[in-house]
Design brief:
The protein has 6 helices and 19 strands. It is an alpha+beta fold. The chain folds into 3 domains: 46 residues, no CATH class; 105 residues, Uridine Diphospho-n-acetylenolpyruvylglucosamine Reductase, domain 3; 82 residues, Uridine Diphospho-n-acetylenolpyruvylglucosamine Reductase, domain 1, CATH 3.90.78. The strands form 7 sheets. The protein has a 5-stranded antiparallel beta sheet, with helices on one face. The chain has a 3-stranded parallel beta sheet with strand order 1-4-2, with no helix packed on it. Strand 5 and strand 6 form a beta hairpin. The longest helix has 19 residues. The chain is globular and about 50 Å long. The mean pLDDT is 95. The structure holds flavin-adenine dinucleotide. Flavin-adenine dinucleotide binds next to strand 2, helix 3, strand 8 and strand 14.
Length: 273
């Protein structure tokens, strides 16, 4: 999975499936018995070295993008960058922040991804999901418990296959280039990472707690706490997933013993340990 995850490490998946059509996905799910890992761009995933004992599904071809009466219809496999640029070209305001988040629409919905004070679920009109038996549903925000970097579907075993968004038509758009420059100033761009490793605990910044625990630059194996942003772990030198997981644990222990605060991971860990 190292090829498919931005950490550039991780073990093997037993099976890997890229459906061409919704029909193909639905048929596959009807007959599938294995555990499923739905994969977006892999920007928030750490697959353990032992790999994933099931099927990874990538909705690469679910990348349709359309607009009808100012409502944007988009497939779960569309990148956030493409969605953001599309909205910019249609003079729709509010999707600019998405350009700063590496990911697909499906992964961003699953994470309630956000940046610069905006979160993706803010703009959702409806989502289309498919369950593990291959049945398709139209749902809205009320069907989910939506929180900071966390989304629970009240109907379990469903995956996002598409969404409709409503962005405002307004005069003032944020400048995407300026947002990206701002992001590049504070993040270790160009080094393999997964963005923020930990959620910010209420009232605190995870990065500040890690920095104040003197962990900037601290490494285990090939995994290091970024010098540029302490809430980022970088794969500096062929880190294994185990190196990264050990470093995550070490950071959690250090912050807990120094500040008595529990850091919860934002990155999703997958596979048997
Ligand atoms: C440099 C960098 C900067 C980042 N900055 C930000 C930021 O500013 N804000 C932010 O919120 N995040 C940020 N992230 C984290 C990441 O970009 C987001 O969490 C993003 O939404 C992940 O999308 P993805 O498609 O890569 O999902 P993946 O990493 O592939 O998957 C993430 C989770 O979503 C699930 N999932 C994926 N697709 C589906 C689907 N179709 N249906 C159901 N579940 C699905 C996966 O199973 C997994 O549990 C950053 C990451 C990097 C590398």
């Amino acid at each position: 999975m190292s090829k498919y995850c931005s950490f550039r490490t991780g073990g093997l998946a037993q099976d890997f499936f890229i459906p061409d059509t919704l029909n193909e996905l639905s048929e596959f799910l009807k007959n599938n018995q294995k555990p499923i890992l739905m994969l977006g761009l892999g920007s928030n995933l750490l697959v353990r070295d032992q790999g994933f004992d099931g099927v990874v599904i990538k909705l690469k071809h679910f990348d349709q993008l359309d607009i009808v009466d100012d409502v944007v219809h988009v497939g779960a496999g569309t990148t956030l960058a493409k969605l953001s640029r599309f909205c910019e070209s249609k003079k729709l305001n509010g999707a600019e922040f998405l350009s700063a988040i590496p990911g697909n629409v499906g992964g961003a919905l699953a994470m309630n991804a956000g940046a610069f004070g905006s979160e993706i679920w803010h703009f959702v009109e409806s989502v289309t999901t498919i369950n593990t038996s291959g049945i398709v549903f139209e749902r809205n925000a009320l069907d989910f418990d939506i929180d900071y970097r966390q989304v629970l579907n009240k109907n379990l075993d469903e995956y996002f296959i598409g969404a409709t968004f409503k962005f405002k038509q307004a005069e003032k758009q944020q400048n995407i280039k300026a947002l990206l420059e701002k992001r590049n100033e504070s993040q270790p761009i160009g080094q393999a990472n997964c963005g923020s490793v930990f959620k910010n605990p209420k009232g605190y910044f995870a990065a500040k707690l890690i920095e104040d625990s003197d962990l900037k630059g601290f490494c285990i194996g090939g995994a290091c706490v970024s010098e540029k942003h302490a809430n980022f772990i970088i794969n500096q030198d062929n880190a294994s997933a185990t190196d990264i997981e050990k470093l995550i644990f070490h950071i959690q222990q250090s912050v807990k013993s120094k500040f008595n605060i529990v850091l919860e991971t934002e990155v999703r860990l997958v596979g048997d340990s």
